[in-house]
Design a protein that fits this description.
The structure holds two protein chains of two kinds.
Chain A lengths: L2 E12 L2 E12 L3 E5 L6 H9 L6 E6 L2 E3 L5 H7 L1 E3 L12 H9 L5 H14 L15 H13 L5 E5 L7 H16 L3 E5 L3 H7 L2 E6 L2 E6 L1 H6 L1 H8 L7
Parallel strand pairs in A: 3-8, 3-9, 6-7, 7-8
Antiparallel strand pairs in A: 1-2, 1-4, 4-5, 9-10
Helix pairs in contact in A: 3-4, 3-5
Chain B lengths: L5 H5 L2 H19 L3 H24 L9 H19 L3 H23 L6 H19 L1 H4 L5 E2 L16 H23 L1 H11 L1 H6 L4 H27 L1 E2 L1 H4 L2 H14 L5 H21 L4 H16 L5 H11 L6 H8 L8
Antiparallel strand pairs in B: 1-2
Helix pairs in contact in B: 3-8, 3-11, 3-13, 3-14, 4-5, 4-6, 4-11, 5-6, 5-11, 8-11, 9-11, 13-14, 13-15, 14-15
Classes of the chains: A alpha/beta, B mainly alpha.
Chain lengths: 242, 346
Amino acid sequence: MKKLLEVNDLSISFSGIKAVQHLSFEMEQGEILALIGPNGSGKSTTVNMISGTYTPDSGEITFDGHLLHKKNSVAKRSHLGIGRTFQTPKPFGNLTVYENIFAIALQKYGFKEAHDKTKKILEMSRLDCFSSIPSSKLSIEKRKWLDLARVLATEPKLLMMDEVMAGLNPNEMDESLEFVREINRMGISILFIEHVMRAVVSVCTRAIVLNEGRFLFCGTPSDALNDPAVIAAYIGGEKVKC
Amino acid sequence: MTKYRGFKAYATPKRIIPLVLLAMMLVIPSIAKSNYSITILVNCMAFAIFGLAWNIIGGYGGQISWCSAAFVAIGAYTNYILSVDYSISPFLSMPLGMLISYIMATIIGYGTFRLHGAYFSIATIAFAESLRSAIQYFSGFTKGTAGIYLTYRGENLWALTFSSDRPFYYIMLVLLVLAVLFSYYFTRSKTGHYLNCIKGDEVAAESLGIETFMVKLRAFQISAMMMSIAGCFYASFLTYISPLSTCSLDLSIKIGVVAIIGGIGTIWGPVLGAFIVIPLIELAGILLGEFGSGNLLYGLMLILIVIFKPKGLFTLLTALYSKLFPENKRPEASEAVKEGHYEEAS
């Protein structure tokens, strides 16, 4: 299997607080990799470093054969194929659902093709009945879907989903998980940042656990749940050496 | 199957109303008796164009600029200096004004568009004020605070000097139609779409591959060039310009207010705003005395608009329109509402 993403010895600190320290992991093409850990363990910071929002103090990120450096802005990384969603969805509230996706699709296509592409994405994400509604009026679940649908218009190779399941009821979660699988079937690798363990166990083949900015565990999600160090990190307890 | 959709398909109220208004505007000069009403209408149209130009960056991009007057002054002063000293036609000095505005917009944008927040707005005020000081300081070149009078060259279209304001009425009308058409096509262009995304959420837009810095810069350059074209023609209409009349913060604010009161981010908003604000300021000048009454009036209007109709007066018209022509409501939207899938904006 081809390596899509390699993170090597990544560290960043914010005015003395070491958010992520010496983090290394790899991701294969087509994989759904979970990145889990308690609050403040550095998951979102890692996503922000990969997407280019933060510049790491040290370490390297290689994506699809490109070594990413400071000059690769957030937009340039998106052109390389790195897509992401946000913990709090960020729809373009002044635009309709259709326009949200259409404007992004225009980057790769002409007007006619972008329209077809948008229709396809709307259908796939089951947002087609909302296409002419202002995106600011969508419910929270649909906003998360719109975030996902919109990033699909950039045709990413890697999609980092930052807590897409948070705040959903079990029914909505099942639907969302199916959507995640569908995205993966399109050949898009997924870095799945999540607190809801049921979701992680259901879609991910491998999980990386972070704690206090450090790498803690790597293995299948069910192994992670049974690992004493992981349990200690999540619910406290005696410090286990690892 | 023929592609002909019949007259009715094209003759929607949305297309007919602007054409009717245009026809009215064309007829007015032959009906109007006083030159004064023509002068006010020329002013309205000029401010509608200024408002449309402001709208490109301020309305569609959400980047509030307070240096519109500086670009008006660049257009006006290149026109006057070249035509008074070298008798060069405004039609030839206009591209030079556009070029200078383009360069200035690039410099301001380059320094501030990488930052988020109010930095851009503050920088625009600083730029406009420095340009005004520069015009006053280099008085050998610009005649300083005394201002410049345009040399009258008879009824001359090439030099843009006329004995009455009526020719300017038609010139401004043509410019206004062009500005509206340009705004229309701009909103439908790729840059227009990207700019809308930036207004919606800059961080998200960037993460989705939109080069926000370049898009904002391009929009600001376009806005600046539009402003200086309008400034060039407006100056010829004024026949006298000074730093105070073309490059003051007062003028910049007036332009922003026209667009905000009409409705920012819409094509007809600035046009409507100009045709309301300019006559009202004129009226206030007559009723309350010339000095400062205009400021008082649009300060008051701005407060009322921001409190009661933050999206501008144009929303009143669109609401009226959808009441008059209810068949234009989109079916998908109402279905989704019935299914109860959508929440009120939180």
